[in-house]
Amino acid sequence: MNNFSYNKVTEVAEAVADLTGHTNARFIAGGTNLLDLMKENVAKPDHLTDINKLALAGIEATEDGGLSLGALATNADTAWNELVEQKYPLLSQAILAGASPQLRNMATNGGNLFQRTRCYYFYDTATACNKREPGSGCSAINGINRIHAILGTSEHCIATHPSDMCVALAALNAKVNVTGPYGDRVIEFRDFHRLPGDTPHLDNNVQDGELVTSIDLPPSNFTQHFHYLKVRERQSYAFALVSVAAALELDGNVIKDIRLALGGVAHKPWRDRSCEEAFIGQEATEANFRALAEKILADAKGYGSNTFKIDLAKRAIVRAFSEALKNN
Amino acid sequence: MKQETSTLEIDDPFSNTLPAYTLVNLRINGQTHKLRLQPWVSLLDAIREYIGLTGTKKGCDHGQCGACTVLVDGKRINSCLTLAIMKDGAEITTIEGLADGEANHPLQDAFIEHDAFQCGYCTPGQICSAVGMFNEGRAHTLEDVKELMSGNICRCGAYTNINAAIMEVKAKLENE
To answer: What pLDDT sits at residue A24?
Structure first.
């Protein structure tokens, strides 16, 4: 780990201002991913601004019937929050499927959005990686790519986004509130993370100096038929090979609304609203779930060791929706 | 750990401007330790190397094994993935702080009773993690315990006996 200076701030404006004057300053909250990357010399900040004292840890109902998740609320406090459990159980399930209890006690909601890929080449500074060192090449495309992406890839990067929480947030149409040197703005969740394209070093559309303050969830009717299915190498405490956030709103057995987001398959949580819309008004049957799975994976591309993910994702989608149907 | 020497020698614009040490007050097992620390010292290294409480173990140093688990304000965390300077003033409990005087913590007795280890290296982390799990109050069944203890790896594979020890203490606590 390189040396750095450190400052603990108490006000949001102070946090944003504290970044200026440094070449590579970073906010630190839980630190679970950042410190790990620093130990590997993948992240090399010259200054850390500790934002843990900011008053951003609340979880509160919003006037429109939704919920506001403070950026500094921990993953554990969010997953086990009464309002989240009641109104957004899909989110609780997804968070609890990720990491370990210790990490969930440290990791924050804001930080979760900024988790970096667990691509082995990204972590290994002895190898080429366009995400870590733009222009150096991608070692995964022709390398060992069992954990890599099958959707939205580019010739420059096939890394996946590692978060479980973000998959549920994508399914639930979350919005991310950020503040920064140029004021406040709201980012729709689908616009938060990026596809790799020819700029794989950019994971998301947050600008330098901007700070996530909260995540808003709109009112949701997905409290009955939902399931977060995570398929991984071992039953607990492993990243997803494929994960599925499935949610249904039913009228009898007719689909009134449907959400499907995939994790472990792309550079961002993968959603395709047009695929979902094609099944609104249709019966909630296994055949339709299979058709939906075929549709959302129509453009999937395997790279050798990860080609199995295409079939795995299809089966996981059918199983997740079948499980969602069972909930009463 | 790999070091890129160029990083340290060339990209180090702050070597003359950094405060070399910061005064940090660490409250560990009820005792305050005033330490002069560099910002990059992990809580784990502060506990082991600066304070000399070596019960807390360094396994992977990357938050993957749980050997470094301690309680901060009653919550279990990986002390390797937090900076000591970030925990200034927090109440930290390590394995050394669980006993009540000469009386072991019930989990310590249960681990001995059930032979819940072979090499013992993961044991302090396992026990601190189990205390944290009890504080959370979310483990109701053996399946819950297995899932909620998954952040603590035992390379000897003593999980069966670890789970038995935890389940026994859990039952005792619930009957109190």
So the answer is: 95
